[in-house]
Amino acid sequence: SAKRAGRGRYRFYDASLNTGNVEAFHLEQGFAEALRSHQFVLQFQPLVHLDSGRIDGYEALVRWRHPHYGLLYPDRFIAVAERSGFIVSLGQEVLRLACEQLAQWHEAGLETSVAVNVSALQLAQPEFADTVLELLAGLSLPAQRLELEITETAILQRESPALDNLHRLRVAGIGVSLDDFGQGYAGFAHLQALPLTRLKIDRSLIAQLSNSHDDSLIVSTTIILAKRLKLQVVAEGVETREQRVHLRLAGCDLAQGYHFSRPMDAEAVPAFEEDFNAEKVKVPS
Ligand code: C2E
Ligand code: MG
Ligand code: MG
Ligand code: MG
């Protein structure tokens, strides 16, 4: 179409008019320095077992303390990092930060686990599995304490080393969660072929739980099928007690969301564990 042809031709002209592109340009220019001066930080959000009420572990979520834009959330910069290829270095930094935090918690007597989001390009690096295993070995961390969260797009390209990496990491004992399930292609057909341990049901499906019969059917069907595949099921974005009860009855194993806790700084985690466990004793669900 003419619009499509024009996009390439007027690329620089467009960029100067579009604040989104200007921001993307500035962010991209700042990536390398941000890495050098440790502007990327992690927050942690708990995953809770619905039956026991026990905390399973924490998902690490990256934030960027930007000198001009303030605290940036991933929706603002992950796509830019993916387009520029910087996501590979950023992903490596996130893995390192997450594992170092985990080692620190273990040293302090807090035995937990951490889940790290991995993007398609990162997983497709031939040396990805080696890098992860070396990182764990260097910190004397058991592989069972680390989980990787991937999305369907990461494993759709059959020609990439992504699947090899996943198999190697699974054999080593690292957990692999399929993130945002139900948001994209949502095909069950190829799930069986993937070395997964968990399925995370996307927040958009959980949000509909109490007001749409169709979506509750999709959620319960997803839970049943996931169990047939011997996968643990995690509900994302659980915000209400009603959703929590519904999910528990539907057989969902774990949940994550504002109902339990917003993502928090690492320093807040030990106190959160104490309060959460004390609360559980006082008010059994
Ligand atoms: P995700 O992996 O699906 O992470 C869950 C997102 O949902 C997080 O947003 C979290 O703060 C948010 N969330 C959790 N509970 C609730 C809830 O009850 N209600 C609502 N409305 N939201 C909730 P966040 O931290 O902004 O991250 C967004 C996405 O950015 C992540 O989605 C993930 O895809 C990506 N991301 C985050 N950190 C990394 C990273 O280190 N590497 C890569 N490649 N992607 C990352
Ligand atoms: Mg995730
Ligand atoms: Mg998700
Ligand atoms: Mg999501």
Q: Tally the helices.
A: 13
Distance N to C terminus: 58 Å
Class from secondary-structure proportions: alpha/beta
Largest sheet: 8 strands, mixed, barrel
Number of strands: 10
Global morphology: globular
Strand order of the largest sheet: 1-2-4-5-6-7-8-9
Bound molecules: ligand C2E, magnesium ion
* Rg, alpha carbons: 20 Å
Order of helices and strands: HHHEEEHHEHHEHHEEHHEHEEH
Amount of helix:
40-55%
Strand content: 15-25%
What ranges have pLDDT less than 50 throughout 5 or more consecutive residues? 1-16
| Average pLDDT level | 89
Protein name: GGDEF-domain containing protein
Domain EAL: 24-277
Keywords: Coiled coil, Membrane, Transmembrane, Transmembrane helix
In words, what does this structure look like?
The protein has 285 residues and is an alpha/beta fold. Helices cover 49% and strands 19% of the residues. Helix 2 packs across helix 3 and helix 7 runs parallel beside helix 9. The longest helix is centred in the middle third of the chain and has 21 residues. 32% of the residues are buried. Bound molecules: ligand C2E and magnesium ion (MG) (3 copies). The site of one magnesium ion has 4 residues, from loops.
